[in-house]
Amino acid sequence: MDEWIDYYDSTHTIYVSKLHRDRHFALIARDIAGYVSSPDAVVLDYACGEALSAGRVADACGLLYLAEPAPGVRGRLIARFAPNTKIRVRSLEDVRKMAENSVDLVVMNSVAQYMTPDELDAAFATVKRILKPSGRFVLGDILRPEVGMFRDVLALLQFAMKNGFLKDALVGLISTALSDYRELRTRVGLQRYSEDEIKAKFAKFGFSGSRALHNIGHNPWRMTFEARHAFTGT
Ligand SMILES: C[S@@+](CC[C@H](N)C(=O)[O-])C[C@H]1O[C@@H](n2cnc3c(N)ncnc32)[C@H](O)[C@@H]1O
Q1: Mean pLDDT across the chain
Q2: Cα(162) to centroid of ligand 1, in Å?
Q3: CA dihedral (192, 196, 199, 200) positive or negative
Q4: Which residue, judged by its Cα, is nearest atom 5 of ligand 1?
Q5: Cα distance from N-terminal residue to C-terminal residue, the chain
């Protein structure tokens, strides 16, 4: 859904303050780094956003591809990480052209909800093709059909309380309620999947996947999954 890409390319207020944004990306980088299994691993962060702490992931792996569809965000990533020789910035079009069996870990966090089901299917097909036989695909921050916006608000407030930006979060929630985000979330919507639906999608694309114990990031009501190529030997 291009409208969500445009939204993320705009000067949005999804992060209520600089501290929120910094803590968010630090947490995401810590969680992604936790999935890196070897210091020479090739990692792809699929729709990485601003990825402010990607240097931390790069420190843990051999090569980090930061892929982002929003052109403005991508421009900032290129400028921010130009000095880091372990980081390459790519468009999603570039990702589709990556070599077969070339990536050890693909992380797609907090992205599936903004895609149409067809876009998510196409992304699964690409990941299946570029992932090495021993590779791992981590799909994070999946919204469940039965969990509403109230839990998102609660999760944000808990994260804010722990990190000292509660006042900004409360102000931010009011402005979000009046913002483009609210309007888009109501009009275009977010895609939601049950655990069984995600597992069925993995199976459809030749992965075997299971739910991880913890969700990536701050929201415990959302789900993360880990998948590998399904064993198809005889
Ligand atoms: C909430 S941000 C997540 C960024 C980062 N992965 C993280 O965990 O912080 C959503 C990301 O999805 C991207 N996005 C939005 N709509 C998309 C679509 N239809 N296809 C692919 N990516 C999309 C946005 O450009 C943005 O980078």
Answers
A1: 95
A2: 25
A3: negative
A4: 48
A5: 40
